[in-house]
């Protein structure tokens, strides 16, 4: 019974959230130790941060307490890796290639990588979308708004 | 009386310029477009338009961005009625009676009725704003840093407690937002805070990057995840064009509901945290309660469509009141508007109404124009919006990813920002997984530096005496309000968990 309860608590969303808040608060306090705190009347750069991280730790602790006492906790569902990797990956690749390879190629790569998140991988649709998006983005961002990026490598 | 006329003529003078009219049209059209489309909301769209708005005049920027917001309230019901799939959160409740109406062949009247109800709700709300905002601003002119700090505390708490989601987690998210606001060089002391040696962070985190990453990417990733779990069947939309126009009976039935919805929606819009979604749900609940025959609801009752529509439009408009007069944003969208103004060097507050009346009145006048444009756009163009719904999401989201990347890039021509927005995308997804609402975080992020500034000034003025916050009657009022809200929320939470455990016990017994 107890093991059951512990397992239920540990796999709940709120428990993970509380863990995150407590961790962030602790890390924040640690990094704030380098800042001078000062007094209330003459606040140093560290004064407000201490208040903020203190508040974070307090609320995190309260949430943790709540998970120990509550009855029906929403469960933590496993993250689906593929969409996140494809979308963020597309953005990262775009960032890396934009200045080296120019607008057209980096846009095309972004679209291709982003489309990998879709289930049946449709190469023709993807290629067409990539071409169209690249063309329109050159029109809008380069010609229309005058963004300082090269079109080609 | 003459005061109002003078202000209105100033406002129209500002609103009826070629540039402002053009951007108003762009805003409302774009707003309707993304309102119609499920999967992209006004919040993500506004955050993506922020880089563009930097190049514009502050009034023009506000006109366009607000056009997107209330425009989305018009378009949102289209997908609800035709596909039982809401285009915006506020239109979710329209599915309940709108879709049955479409199934009965009454899609046309439903769509037209929502357009008319939206117009009526917006119009009345605009009048409310014009009457009350100056009064509120006048009162707030006497606020000092002490009162402002307490007001921000109360406002943030209200925004957290009245909105959806677990209140404690919401408060924690406000603190997370405050944390993000700490990054950068402290203006008062010149100290480097949490910059980890990266020069790009010296100016702090750009709120556009945070908003686009958390809301933009976060929304896309969770949409895609949802499509994974359930291969969402491409729902065919019902086209019952049996009769196109609203009947006199429809209009007769809707007058009081629209008025009630507008009243409720206007009130909800002003309250921080209660937004368009709560307004529309509350309006539906009220109509069902006061109806002579509540069993009609859920089967195509026109009141169930017109009242929420009026409410969500009214709420969208009146939510500008606290933002423009006090500088307190009620929800994430208003936080973005506030941020947009701050980038232009305007610190919203009561002084803005007196120092730059053209901003407020110009915006108000343009809202009037915008709503007329929307009425004109939405009734004949319904067919177009319906066809827009047939664009598969799979073709829509890659360009959105690109818009996010190029958008953040254009702020500082810095590739670092692209990596940063990606990082916040991951962060946003993590928040969704942990069941944490990101809106309170955005509010805390935008208000954080202001809160610190006011707190510091209050402490300097009082020479370190904390009791200054209760010495001022206005400040004391706000703090007591905050305390009352916490007590109310805790009591409601305890009551709810008692009800839940009783239900669980009941279930087990059976």
Structure description:
- The complex is a heterodimer of chains A (153) and B (510).
- By secondary structure, chain A is mostly helical.
- Chain A has helices at 2-10, 13-32, 47-69, 81-115, 123-144.
- By secondary structure, chain B is mainly alpha-helical.
- Chain B is 75% helix and 1% strand.
- Chain B is globular, with a radius of gyration of 23 Å.
- In chain B, a hairpin with a 6-residue loop joins strand 1 (184-185) and strand 2.
- In chain B, strands 1-2 form a two-stranded antiparallel sheet.
- Chain B has helices at 2-15, 18-36, 42-54, 58-83, 94-103, 107-140, 145-162, 167-182, 207-229, 248-270, 276-290, 303-318, 320-325, 332-343, 350-355, 357-378, 382-388, 393-412, 415-433, 438-462, 468-471, 473-509, and strands spanning 184-185, 192-193.
Summarize the entry for a quick read.
The complex is a heterodimer of chains A (153) and B (510). With 153 residues, chain A is mostly helical.
- Largest β sheet strand count, sense and barrel closure of chain A: none
Radius of gyration of chain B (CA) equals 23 Å
**How far is the first residue's CA from the last residue's CA of chain B?**
67 Å
- Helix and strand string of chain B, N-terminal first? HHHHHHHHEEHHHHHHHHHHHHHH
How far do the termini of chain A sit from each other? 64 Å
Low-confidence stretches of chain B: none
Structural class of chain A: mainly alpha
Number of helices of chain A: 5
Quote the average pLDDT of chain B: 86
Query: Mean pLDDT score of chain A, rounded?
Result: 87
Q: Work out the helicity level of chain B.
A: over 70%
Number of strands of chain B: 2
Shape of chain A: flat
Find the count of extended strands of chain A (DSSP E, 2+ residues): 0
β content of chain B, as a range? under 5%
């Amino acid at each position: 019974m107890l093991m059951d309860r512990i397992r239920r608590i540990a796999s709940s969303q709120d428990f993970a959230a509380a863990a995150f808040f407590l961790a962030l608060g602790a890390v924040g306090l640690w990094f704030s130790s380098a800042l001078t705190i000062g007094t209330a009347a003459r606040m140093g750069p560290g004064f407000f941060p201490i208040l903020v991280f203190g508040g974070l730790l307090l609320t995190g602790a309260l949430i943790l307490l709540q998970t120990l006492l509550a009855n029906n906790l929403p469960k933590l569902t496993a993250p689906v890796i593929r969409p996140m990797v494809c979308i963020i990956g597309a953005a990262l690749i775009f960032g890396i290639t934009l200045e080296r390879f120019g607008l057209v190629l980096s846009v095309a790569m972004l679209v291709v990588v982003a489309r990998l998140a879709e289930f049946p991988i449709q190469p023709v649709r993807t290629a067409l979308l990539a071409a169209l998006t690249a063309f329109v983005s050159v029109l809008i961002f380069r010609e229309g708004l005058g963004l300082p990026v090269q079109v080609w490598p | 009386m003459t005061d109002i006329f003078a202000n209105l003529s100033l406002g129209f003078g500002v609103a009826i310029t070629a540039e402002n009219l053009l951007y108003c049209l762009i805003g409302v059209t774009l707003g309707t477009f993304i309102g119609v489309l499920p999967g992209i909301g006004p919040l993500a769209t506004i955050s993506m338009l922020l880089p563009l708005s930097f190049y514009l005049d502050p009034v023009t920027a506000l006109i366009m961005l607000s056009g997107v917001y209330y425009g989305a309230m018009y378009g949102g019901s289209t997908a609800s009625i035709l596909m039982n799939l809401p285009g915006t959160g506020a239109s979710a409740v329209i599915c309940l009676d709108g879709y049955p109406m479409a199934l009965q062949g009454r899609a046309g009247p439903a769509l037209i009725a929502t357009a008319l109800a939206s117009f009526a709700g917006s119009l009345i709300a605009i009048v409310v704003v014009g009457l009350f905002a100056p009064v509120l601003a006048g009162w707030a002119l006497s606020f000092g840093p002490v009162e402002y700090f307490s007001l921000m505390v109360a406002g943030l708490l209200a925004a957290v407690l009245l909105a959806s989601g677990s209140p404690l987690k919401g408060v924690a998210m406000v603190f997370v937002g405050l944390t993000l606001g700490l990054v950068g060089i402290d203006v008062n002391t010149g100290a480097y805070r949490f910059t980890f040696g990266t020069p790009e962070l010296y100016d702090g985190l750009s709120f556009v990057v945070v908003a686009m990453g958390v809301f933009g990417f976060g929304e896309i990733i969770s949409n895609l995840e949802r499509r994974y779990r359930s291969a969402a069947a491409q729902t065919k939309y019902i086209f019952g064009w049996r009769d196109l126009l609203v009947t006199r009976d429809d209009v007769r039935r809707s007058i009081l509901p629209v008025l009630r919805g507008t009243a409720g929606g206007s009130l909800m819009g002003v309250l921080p945290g209660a937004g368009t979604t709560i307004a529309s749900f509350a309006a539906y609940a009220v109509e069902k309660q006061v109806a002579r025959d509540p069993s009609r609801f859920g089967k195509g009752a026109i009141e169930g469509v017109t009242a929420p529509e009026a409410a969500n439009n009214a709420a969208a408009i009146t939510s500008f009141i606290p933002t423009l007069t006090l500088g307190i944003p009620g929800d994430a969208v208003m936080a973005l508007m506030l941020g947009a103004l701050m980038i232009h060097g305007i610190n919203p507050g009561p002084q803005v109404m007196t120092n730059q009346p053209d901003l407020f009145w110009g915006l108000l006048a343009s809202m009037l124009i915008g709503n007329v444009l929307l009425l004109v756009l939405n009734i004949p163009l319904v067919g177009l919006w319906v066809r827009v719904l047939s664009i598969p999401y799979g073709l829509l989201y890659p360009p959105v990813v690109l818009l996010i990347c190029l958008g953040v890039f254009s702020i500082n021509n810095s590739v670092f920002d692209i990596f940063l927005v990606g990082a916040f995308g991951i962060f946003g997804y993590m928040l969704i997984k942990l069941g944490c609402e990101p809106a309170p975080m955005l509010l805390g992020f935008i208000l954080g530096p202001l809160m610190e500034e006011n707190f510091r000034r209050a402490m300097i003025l009082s020479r370190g005496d904390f009791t200054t916050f209760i010495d001022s009657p206005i400040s004391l009022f706000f703090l007591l309000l905050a305390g009352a809200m916490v007590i109310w929320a805790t009591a409601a939470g305890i009551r709810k968990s008692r009800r839940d455990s009783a239900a669980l016990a009941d279930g087990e017994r059976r």
